[in-house]
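Issue 218. Parser rejects a valid record. Input:
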Amino acid sequence: MSNADQAFLWAYDISAEGQITQISHTDVTTPVAEDSYRWVHLQSDESDAEQLLDSMALPPSVTDSLMALQTRPRALPIKEGALIFLRGINVNPGADADDMVSLRLWLTPNLIVTARRQNRRLMSVQDTRAMIDSGEAPASSAELLIALLTRIADRIHDKIEDIDEQLGQYEVADALNKRDRQQLAMLRRQTASIRRHLAPQRDALDTLIRLPNLINDSLIFELRDQADRMTRYVEDLDLARERSVVLQDELRNQIADQQGIRMYVLSMITAIFLPLSFLTGVFGMNVAGLPGTEAPDAFATLMMAMGGIAVVMLIAMLWRRWL
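Output the parser choked on:
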């Protein structure tokens, strides 16, 4: 790949009849046919990304936004199009699922530009491209957007199902070890991080619903369905967070109960040996006048008496149900 097309990943021209033409980076500057739309996918942090975006005659504010380092899910109507920022589950090798991948989109009736950063592939985009390569191309740029949203939501659904399954395993487990407690804490962090992006993503989809010039009435229902899915996922994540909090509280209570039982047993043992320690302390004093110092069986008598006292105290504690 030459220095002139490092940012370019792929592009398609798709006609209303479903004819698909894959084009090169030099063709993205040509006008789109009247009955077609174009999908351009690029890498926004390459050195030639700005040059590529400028060659497509995008508004300067759109170019700057597509190349932004940090984004948050939202949708902004700009002139004849809409600037959309989305987040999807990160399934790249070695990546954390809660480190969600940002997808930047510029949508007009005959153009959709999607941008990602280096080493931040979004598998939902790859799935959509595979669908087009198989000959199943959406009929319009808005339908392509719906296809992308559907696959992003599917990946989110899979991750939430995985979180729910893991929480269910912890809830039915008889006991959790240290590794399980660490995994539960990680699940709670993942849930909070994913929810942090899904809540504004739901609001972004609600904004798109109110843009009739881009999304026609026949697609509003599908877009609203995707917005409802995001709402359900946010609610599911709220529930998962509450379940993880309850599990952690139960774990803390179990640990506190175990520590309390151990301390109680130690206290009872201390109570049994307290009079015995007193007797050993008294008869261990090196002073004149101690009884039994001259009797040969004094030691055996003292030990029997101490044992008897211990047995009596143990029986008394069992009778009072202290043990």
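Fixed in the parser; the record now loads. Residues 27 and 78 are 25 Å apart (CA to CA).
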